[in-house]
């Protein structure tokens, strides 16, 4: 025994007890009598009568005698009514069917096929037996008993379909309990007799998971039924006795001055190094330590004792006894013993927290979190648990599960009054505070909101404890016993992200469930921001957490590993090769050429390894191990080491060990190789901020380790948090649907005649069902709003959005090095904005966020600048940027944000949108232009397609559009660009016309196939995908026509001013396409009419009106609203086009097509004409002018029929061999082939090769046919 730093140190487990014959009878500390009294006080004898003197030399024998009293016979003796080995586990050798994951303790199981089954190793045939099942998923499973002859298959999955915790069986019946509450008798008159015995069994569907407890742990809800596995009775009795002795030591002190024993409160006991106390406790731990390596004893004895210490309430700081006990553990137990004890204790706490039932005050969860906090306050224990136990299981502690059964969770008492929206706006959305709300509705809503606030306050208690745990794990000052906790946490966190990123889409069972990630992300943001602000207060001039961002050098200096995640500029190995000079000049980062060569060779090696790993494993895979992080899918929280399969199939490709660093990242440090200096830096080393570019401000930032954690938070949001936020909106949608249904039912009840009592009865039943469902859903929605969609959670997502925006802005300032930025930063910026806009409303509003408009403008700047950024090469991220920008310009607030960005960037954005459509994804950019125009075009102000309103005005599920919000500012930029840059205008319009020709031709081909399928006599169905493609081609055709309308309206000179190059050609092409569209759509009893009249699902948007008003808008601009000379040219071109048909114009105007018909037949608008459609207000007063102009033009042509044919060739040989529409008017040099000017001019825009001989055309000359 020695003193080290004021703390007494003992040689563990092999200290020499005071039993030597030469030791004096007095200890030198207390006299014999006081020592004897103290030992008898600590180790009382159950026998009555005076006790003899007791000294330290006799203590060991005395203690062994006390422990041996009352010992039971040897355990694991055969018990009547039970057959099988002890301990009881799942039969992973022969008692299963299908594919299953089984944990290494053979108690947890996860289904990995459609319906897998497994039974236990022990059966019963007589008596009363029970086992527990902890259910961690919500899908289909069947739990009960089966015989040995039961053959698991799809039809017969066992004998009971109950899916809850208890299954009790005796001689004649089988009953079930859930959370200790009996569900009644499941089966009676069970077959008994010779050869009949029953095994615990389960069948479960894919990804469903449970954990069995046959008695290896204390039953959570004990009953008078026997557990299948015998408890360790003898060890349990010893452990309780030893714990009692420890309590006696804690409550008894020796007053050496008064020479008496003093009773005291256990809570104030401290380890002062008193030799008498230490030697006494050492004797106890000599027996107690081995017992604490058994899970049953840890859970039943130690965990309950520690929980009892905290039962008095108050903060964890007010209970230092747990810290003192942990000091004793580390002092008096072997390292392997205390390690195993802490591991079992923490896993028992995780299990208890995870499967605790939800009660109104969340008492169970708070209780377990308080003990976890107390244990983690102990520095040495915390570091051991961080290194060896907590990751990745620690995520369980941050999850607040949503109760599936409102009644069991006590929400009826907490929220006695329910409420749901009953007023909806024209678009069907809930109104937050409707003006016509009655006083009763207002009282109900306010009572419901008060109940929600009560619930929120109770949940906040749990969340605060969870944040305290994270603050302990983020401690970077505890360096006295080795590496600080924060750096252990950071490295484990990074490996967790790597595992989830690498397994996404490959091994879904290896991923952390997204609902865990959502809760963990919010707690981590709170803890990080608190730590950041504490550090910034100590460092004047540094950034606060409000202005936090991730510096760009983290993306290329190799200090942070981003695994295989895509960069904006492509693969990291490629970027290091192509941008090595920029890295050297801008960031002073030098890459060794030899390392680049090594990278190239490693790429080849990696491909070979992947190929080898993907080869079939054959029958050897059966029963093989599949490494995976087992902690989540399995309730046992143990690591699975068995993958059971009854079929000879190949297992999934095993991933590479995480300990190996990525070969392609030649300058990246492996996580386990990093030190604190690599992260924080020291002696001139910038750590994570190594390689600061000149554009990056040299401003102090908080602890650099926090930067990497923030980077991990962004990655985690991208992995699964955003997806989970979208899933939880389903509950709010269900509330809305049931509220609409209830309101509709109540209106029907009010209209129901009194004589129809049968209908009234059915309506009242429906009303009751809807009301009960809404009561349940409204309380569940209150829980979800408090845990996921609260104002605080919204601020967290908003902060994350701002972090991403600032990070992208700083990375953009580095020029070419922007290509190193991971793609997920742009994804999170777009998704976080989408979540704030769509998921958190209507309970919270984006307008209430601080700096909301400035943030919108910043995000608009990023989208406008980077959707066509050449530094971004990934197709997926480009599409995402384009879609985000298209969504951005749909809504007034975000569109105004686009208009607020600097003018130079607005003009650059419009220039990129007007780039030629060929060889790039053009549909999205076209939609953006259309959305900038909606509300300004002819008949283009509707929010729902007029023909659908006419047929089904009450149907809320019809396709709808956002309210028009055109941007006159961006239209003006577009007009200026097209007017000033003639070449760009010509190439843009040619590409639009080309795509219109393609889209409309594809649409016509599709409807031909649909019509042919509909005319077949046999019963057949049109492919849904084909209908979708057909509708998409139609919508594209309409949108392209709208872009042409916008162009003609804004810059009519492009078509009508023939002094501009290509103007005549563009006008002729436009007229040709317009005539083709009109002919196809307006012909009497044509293909288009027949398909529209079929009213096929999926083709709701296909109708005459959308496409005819778009064509009419173009015709009005070129024939009515333009200058006289321009309209004359347009009319001439339109009439001279060979495809022009007079009946198409008459169809548009609703006039009869043939004046020779008898006058007795009244004229009526043609089917599908504008006159028969829902006429929009956009037509205004132009209808009469348009009708007059069209009539004059058509009349001019019909009154001089011969004048048109004067211009036509007399022979087919004189027609252009390309279009067969115009006369030959051009000859090519040097090959002398011929065509019309329109065809060759259009062709030369894309190619210089001759149509016919592929010779290079050097010139084009006019051609006049020689006189015959």
Automatic annotation (TrEMBL):
> Which protein are we looking at?
RING-type E3 ubiquitin transferase
Transmembrane stretches in the record are: none
Gene Ontology BP terms: protein ubiquitination; proteolysis involved in protein catabolic process
Q: Where is this region: Disordered?
A: 675-694, 1152-1202
Record field: compositional bias (Low complexity): 1155-1166
In terms of superkingdom, the source organism counts as Eukaryota
Does this UniProt record's set of keywords contain Zinc-finger?
yes
As recorded in Swiss-Prot or TrEMBL, the protein's gene is named RNF123
One CC-aspect GO term: cytoplasm
One Pfam family it belongs to: zf-C3HC4_3
Polar residues composition-biased segments: 1170-1184
Question: What Gene3D superfamilies does its record include?
Answer: 2.60.120.920, Zinc/RING finger domain, C3HC4 (zinc finger) (3.30.40.10)
Q: Which UniProt keywords apply?
A: Metal-binding, Transferase, Ubl conjugation pathway, Zinc, Zinc-finger
Q: Does the keyword Zinc belong to this entry? A: yes
What InterPro entries does the annotation carry?
B30.2/SPRY_sf, ConA-like_dom_sf, RNF123/RKP/RSPRY1, TPR_RNF123/RKP, Znf_RING, Znf_RING/FYVE/PHD
Domain RING-type: start-end pairs? 1216-1254
Q: Give the signal peptide, or none.
A: none
Q: What is the taxonomic lineage of the source species?
A: Eukaryota, Metazoa, Chordata, Craniata, Vertebrata
Q: Give the catalysed reaction(s), semicolon-separated.
A: S-ubiquitinyl-[E2 ubiquitin-conjugating enzyme]-L-cysteine + [acceptor protein]-L-lysine = [E2 ubiquitin-conjugating enzyme]-L-cysteine + N(6)-ubiquitinyl-[acceptor protein]-L-lysine
Against PROSITE patterns, the record matches this protein to: ZF_RING_2
A single Gene Ontology MF term assigned here is: ubiquitin protein ligase activity
């Amino acid at each position: 025994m020695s003193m080290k730093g004021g703390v007494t140190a003992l040689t563990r487990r092999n200290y020499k007890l005071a039993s030597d014959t030469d030791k004096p009878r007095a200890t030198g500390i207390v006299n014999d009598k006081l020592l004897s009294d103290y030992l008898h006080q600590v180790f009382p004898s159950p026998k009555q009568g005076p006790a003899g003197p007791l000294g330290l030399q006799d203590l060991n024998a005395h203690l062994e005698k006390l422990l041996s009293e009352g010992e039971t016979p040897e355990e694991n003796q055969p018990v009547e009514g039970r057959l099988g080995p002890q301990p009881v586990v799942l039969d992973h050798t022969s008692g299963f069917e299908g594919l299953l994951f089984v944990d290494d303790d053979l108690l947890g199981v996860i289904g990995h096929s459609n319906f897998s089954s497994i039974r236990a190793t022990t059966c019963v045939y007589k008596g009363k037996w029970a086992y527990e099942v902890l259910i961690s998923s919500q899908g289909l499973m069947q739990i009960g008993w089966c015989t040995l002859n039961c053959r698991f298959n799809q039809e017969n999955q066992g004998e009971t379909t109950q899916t809850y915790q208890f299954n009790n069986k005796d001689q004649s019946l089988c009953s079930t309990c859930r959370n200790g509450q009996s569900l009644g008798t499941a089966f009676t008159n069970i077959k008994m007799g010779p050869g009949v015995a029953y095994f615990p069994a389960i069948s479960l569907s894919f990804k469903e998971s449970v954990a069995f407890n046959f008695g290896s742990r204390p039953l959570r809800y004990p009953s008078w039924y026997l557990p299948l596995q015998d408890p360790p009775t003898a060890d349990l009795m010893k452990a309780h006795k030893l714990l009692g002795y420890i309590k006696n030591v804690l409550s008894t002190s020796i007053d050496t001055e008064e020479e008496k024993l003093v009773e005291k409160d256990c809570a104030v006991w401290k380890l002062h190094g008193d030799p008498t106390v230490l030697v006494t406790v050492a004797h106890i731990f000599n027996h107690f330590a081995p017992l604490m390596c058994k899970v049953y004893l840890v859970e039943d004895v130690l965990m309950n004792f520690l929980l009892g210490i905290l039962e008095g309430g108050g903060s964890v700081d007010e209970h230092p006894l747990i810290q003192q006990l942990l000091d004793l553990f580390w002092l008096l137990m072997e390292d392997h013993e205390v390690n195993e004890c802490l591991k079992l204790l923490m896993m028992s706490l995780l299990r208890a927290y995870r499967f605790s039932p939800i009660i109104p005050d969340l008492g169970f969860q708070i209780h377990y979190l308080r003990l976890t906090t107390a244990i983690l306050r102990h520095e040495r224990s915390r570091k051991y648990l961080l290194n060896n136990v907590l990751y990745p299981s620690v995520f369980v502690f941050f999850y607040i599960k949503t109760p599936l059964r409102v009644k069991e969770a006590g929400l009826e008492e907490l929220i006695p009054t329910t409420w749901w929206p009953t007023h909806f706006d024209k678009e069907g959305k809930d109104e937050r505070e409707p003006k016509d709300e009655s006083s009763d509705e207002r009282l109900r809503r306010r009572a419901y909101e008060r109940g929600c606030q009560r619930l929120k306050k109770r949940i906040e208690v749990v969340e605060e404890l969870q944040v305290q745990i994270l603050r302990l794990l983020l401690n970077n000052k505890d360096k006295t016993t080795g590496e600080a906790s924060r750096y252990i946490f950071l490295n484990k966190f990074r490996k967790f992200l790597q595992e989830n990123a690498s397994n996404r889409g490959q091994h879904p069972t290896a991923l952390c469930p997204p609902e865990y990630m959502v809760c963990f992300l919010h707690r981590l943001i709170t803890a990080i921001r608190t730590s950041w602000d504490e550090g910034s207060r100590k460092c004047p001039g540094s950034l606060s957490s409000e202005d936090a961002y991730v510096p760009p050098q983290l993306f290329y200096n190799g200090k942070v590993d981003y695994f295989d995640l895509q960069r904006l500029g492509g693969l990291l190995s490629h970027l290091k090769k192509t941008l090595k000079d920029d890295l050297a000049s801008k960031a002073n980062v030098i890459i060794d050429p030899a390392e680049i060569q090594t990278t190239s060779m490693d790429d080849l090696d990696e491909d070979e390894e992947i190929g080898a790993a993907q080869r079939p494993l054959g029958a050897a895979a059966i029963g093989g191990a599949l490494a995976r992080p087992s902690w989540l899918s399995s309730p046992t929280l143990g690591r699975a080491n068995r993958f059971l399969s009854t079929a000879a199939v190949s297992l999934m490709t095993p991933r590479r060990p995480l300990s190996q660093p990525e070969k392609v990242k030649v300058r990246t440090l492996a996580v386990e190789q990093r030190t604190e200096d690599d992260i924080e830096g020291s002696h001139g080393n910038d750590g994570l901020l190594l390689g600061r570019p000149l554009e990056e401000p040299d401003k102090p930032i908080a602890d650099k380790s926090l930067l990497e954690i923030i980077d991990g938070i962004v990655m985690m949001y991208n992995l699964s948090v955003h997806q989970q936020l979208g899933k939880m909106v389903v509950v709010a949608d269900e509330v809305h649907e049931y509220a609409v249904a209830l309101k509709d039912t109540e209106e029907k009840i009010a209209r129901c005649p009194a004589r129809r009592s049968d209908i009234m009865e059915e309506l009242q039943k429906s009303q009751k069902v809807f009301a009960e469902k809404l009561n349940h859903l409204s309380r569940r929605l209150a829980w979800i709003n408090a845990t996921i969609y609260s104002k605080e959670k919204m601020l967290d997502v908003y902060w994350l959005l701002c972090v991403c925006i600032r990070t992208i802005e700083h990375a953009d300032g580095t020029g070419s090095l922007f290509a190193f930025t991971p793609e997920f930063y742009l994804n999170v910026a777009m998704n976080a904005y989408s979540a704030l806009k769509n998921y958190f409303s209507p309970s919270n509003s984006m307008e209430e966020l601080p700096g909301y408009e400035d943030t919108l403008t910043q995000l608009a700047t990023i989208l406008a600048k980077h959707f066509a950024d050449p530094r971004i090469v990934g197709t997926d991220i480009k599409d995402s940027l384009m879609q985000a920008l298209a969504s951005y310009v749909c809504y007034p607030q975000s569109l105004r944000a686009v208009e607020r960005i600097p003018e130079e960037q607005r003009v650059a954005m419009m220039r990129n949108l007007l780039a030629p459509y060929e060889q790039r994804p053009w549909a999205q950019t076209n939609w953006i232009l259309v959305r900038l125009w909606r509300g300004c075009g002819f008949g283009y102000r509707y929010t729902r397609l007029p023909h659908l309103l006419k047929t089904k005005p009450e149907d809320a599920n019809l396709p709808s559009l956002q309210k028009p919000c055109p941007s006159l500012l961006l239209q003006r930029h577009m007009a200026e660009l097209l007017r000033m840059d003639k070449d760009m205008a010509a190439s843009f319009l040619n590409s639009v016309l080309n795509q219109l020709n393609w889209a409309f031709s594809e649409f016509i081909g599709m409807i031909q196939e649909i019509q042919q399928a509909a005319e077949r006599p046999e019963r057949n169905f049109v492919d849904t995908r084909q209908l979708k493609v057909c509708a998409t081609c139609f919508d594209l055709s309409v949108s392209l026509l709208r872009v042409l309308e916008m162009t003609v309206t804004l810059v009519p000179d492009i078509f009508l001013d023939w002094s501009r190059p290509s103007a005549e050609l563009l006008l002729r092409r436009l007229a040709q396409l317009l005539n083709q569209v009109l002919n196809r759509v307006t012909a009497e009893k044509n293909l288009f009419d027949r398909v529209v009249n079929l009213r096929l699902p999926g083709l709701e948007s296909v109708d005459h009106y959308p496409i005819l008003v778009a064509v009419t808008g173009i015709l009005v601009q070129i024939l009515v609203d333009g200058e006289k000379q321009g309209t004359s040219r347009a009319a001439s071109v339109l009439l001279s086009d060979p495809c022009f048909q007079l009946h198409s114009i008459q169809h548009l105007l609703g006039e009869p097509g043939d004046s020779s018909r008898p006058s007795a037949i009244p004229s009526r608008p043609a089917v599908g004409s504008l006159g028969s459609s829902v006429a929009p207000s956009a037509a205004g007063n132009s209808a009469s002018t348009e009708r007059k102009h069209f009539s004059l033009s058509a009349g001019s042509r019909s009154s001089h029929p011969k004048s048109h044919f004067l211009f036509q060739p007399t022979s087919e040989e004189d027609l252009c061999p390309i279009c067969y529409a115009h006369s030959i008017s051009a000859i090519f040099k040097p090959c002398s082939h011929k065509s019309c000017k329109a065809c060759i001019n259009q062709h030369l825009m894309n190619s210089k090769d001759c149509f016919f001989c592929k010779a290079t055309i050097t010139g084009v000359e006019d051609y006049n046919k020689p006189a015959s």
